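Illustration: Phosphomannomutase/phosphoglucomutase.
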Amino acid sequence: MTADLSQIVKAYDVRGVVPSQWDESLAELFGAAFARVTRAEAIVVGHDMRPSSPGLSRAFARGAVAQGVDVTEIGLCSTDQLYYASGALDLPGAMFTASHNPAQYNGIKLCRAGAAPVGQDTGLTEIRELVEGWSDTGAPEPAPAHGKITQRETLEDYAAHLRSLVDLTSIRPLKVVVDAGNGMGGHTVPTVFTGLPLDLVPMYFELDGTFPNHEANPLDPANLVDLQLRVREEGADLGIAFDGDADRCFVVDANGDPVSPSAITALVAARELARNGGTGTIIHNLITSWSVPEVVAEHGGTPARTRVGHSFIKAEMARTGAIFGGEHSAHYYFRDFWNADTGMLAALHVLAALGGQDGPLSTLVAQYDRYVGSGEINSTVEDQNARLAAIRTAYEDREDVTLDELDGLTVTAADWWFNVRPSNTEPLLRLNAEARDEPTMTKVRDEALAIIRG
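Result:
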């Protein structure tokens, strides 16, 4: 019986419950398929701290080796450390992680040489078809000569590369609390922060893929509570939280208040523009704050609006030669990091910006946080298309608004906007709203929710 991979092969990666949805035997087939589709002579493979990751990673390597491909294993790493290895070694890469998902999950993030993304339209569909076929007919034909597996340490080089992209020479001493959530930030932060004038207060740095303290998903406010409390207790200048594979970073100020990823996007955009002579394109997805394109234009840059999702961001980065891109979900992309996302580099920018002046972080980011946002609100609906059509009907004849369908439906007025997007994997509509003041945002949000929820 051919394996049904529809539940685990997503738009951008492979992800599912181990071992009920996938296991090492399937991982081996994914390795063979990746070798076939990329036609590479060599690849690089890394993994996170989940209990199932070493076995899945090694099985994937076996599958690739049997197809004549050499495999460089870099072992425990963050996702952006794997992207570094793919870029620096100019090799396709595979990262075994389920990011912020619970412990029973695992997955594979794949990239071509130079950390170029692999998604449904760039190879993942072909990989899925090969694995499904082999699961029915048996293992693929091996190559006449097997490849070899070697190990390589990349953490020091990864850290040095990141520090070369941010001027940290003149920052003042800072006290920073870092919540690694028992994820890969506990592995990378000590090396990346070495030599900086930081009083580092580590939280949950022990690598533990069962996540004994809280889920490694800082996008959920419940998972920031421990960090917020510790920042206030320590009298720290700021707090930083990483997700499970440490490719996203979230920031809280000295009061423990979260700093919106849009404000971080604007702050880093201003710094990257200054670093590039005051010119360059900055990518932002369509549900980042109005603050982002405003700040970009004020600093001489060209803002470019795109759909939500890393494959769209990376494609637009490559097409436009953009120097930086940011998303509302705290993914930050850098041209000088092979257009890949790295929360660690964004964190270094925040430390450099805060340490380069005397005020608190709340004052620093106020200039980048100009509007009131709703955050993302999910609603379960029976018919996504019908609800989107109802919203269009409600607003399309109004002269004070414009509508666009770049990603879902965006309704924009002079003082507010909202976007409604369907989930690709669940019967959900996702609402984001923003306005110039709280009462207007509340009114717009509630009006949209009333239509969405019928």
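Reading the tokens back as a structure: The chain has four domains: 14-153, 157-255, 261-366, 372-452.
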